[in-house]
Amino acid sequence: MSIWTVILIIAVIAAIILGVLYFVGRKMQAKQEDQRAQLDQMAQTVNMLVIDKKRMKIMDAGFPKMVTDNIPKRARLSKVPVVKAKIGPKITPLLCDEAIFDDVPVKAEIKAVVSGIYITSIKNLRNVAPPEPEKRGLRAKLTKKSAEYMRKN
After folding, report:
1. How far, in Å, CA of 82 to CA of 63, rounded?
2. Model's pTM, two decimal places?
3. CA–CA separation, 128 vs 110, rounded Å?
C-alpha cells in the first residue's frame, strides 16, 4: 500500500465523520428551536424580588422532587445559574438563562418573563441597589482628611 492510499482512506473517514456531525447538529438545532418556541408560548410576566443568585448544582438548589427526578444523570453534576426570588408570599428557586444571569440584580425588584421555573428575560428593574463605594488606600484617605482639615481652617 502506498502513502496515497492511506491518505485517501483517512480523508474518506474524516468526510463521513463531518457529514454525520453536520446532520446531528442540524437535528439538535431544530430540537432547540422547538423548545424555545414552547418556552415562549408558556411565558408570563411576573414581578419578583431577587434574594440571591449563584451558580450551583441543580440537585443542591432546592427544587421540588418532581423536578429533580426528571433531570438526566449527566446534568445532575453540572452547575447551573439559579436565582432565589420572592414571588408573592413564596420564596422560589428559579433557573435563569445564561445570557441574562449577570444582568439580574441581587436584592432588587424586577419584572421578568418566566416560563415554568425558567427565567427567560428581564423587562425592567426597580429599586436597584446603589453601587458599592470604591475601596481606597491609606494614602487616598489621608489626602481626603487633610483636604477637609484645610477647608475647616
Report:
1. 10
2. 0.62
3. 9
